[in-house]
Amino acid sequence: MKNKLLAILDRMIEDSEDIIEFIEPVTAFSDLSKDRMRKKALSQSILNLGENTKLLEKWLDLTLTTIDWRGLKGMREIAAHRYHSLDNEIIYDVAKNHVPSILEYLRQQQAEQINNDFR
Questions:
Q1: By residue range, what is the domain housing residue 64?
Q2: Rounded CA separation 4/45 (Å)
Q3: Which of 25, 32, 71, 105 might form a disulfide with 88, Cβ 3.0–4.6 angstroms?
Q4: Does residue 84 contact residue 36 with C-beta atoms inside 8 Å?
């Protein structure tokens, strides 16, 4: 069972790292309208994070964090079902300002799960 949680964390960490890498050269949200491939890569990775959040909350009490997990799941719904209504400013904001703290939380949880295995 714990292996499933670690697999979810691994996937979410990878997607978070991808988002940070993809957004790094972007200096303004308006740049995303000029780079469709980057916007699609960011949107897909955000979709993946939202989808895996649904799995993660089965294992961890996400209400104990200040991260807006509900908002992330909502972005997943928009990315999956109404992609063309995704706002570049929101994608930019999530990628630049929220994903780094999500990544920090995920790495912390991963380390705790690994350390618990050795106790």
A1: 2-117
A2: 20
A3: 32
A4: no
| pLDDT tens profile 32-86 | 989 999 999 999 999 999 999 999 999 998 888 899 888 888 777 776 666 566 7
Look up the CATH number of the domain holding residue 23. Answer: 1.20.120
User: How is residue 95 annotated by DSSP?
Assistant: I
Residue whose structure tokens are 């790495």: 107
50, 73 contact by CB (below 8 A) = yes
pLDDT digits (tens, 9 = 90+) for 78-110: 766 665 667 888 899 999 999 999 999 999 999
Query: Under a CB-based contact definition with an 8 Å cutoff, are residues 103 and 67 in contact?
Result: no
Report CA-CA distances (Å) from 42 to 61, 67, 107, 119.
Answer: 26, 19, 20, 38
The single residue listed with the structure tokens 């957004």 is 23
- State CA 1 to chain mean position distance: 22
Answer yes or no: are the C-beta atoms of 100 and 3 closer than 8 Å.
no
Number of folded domains that form the chain: 1
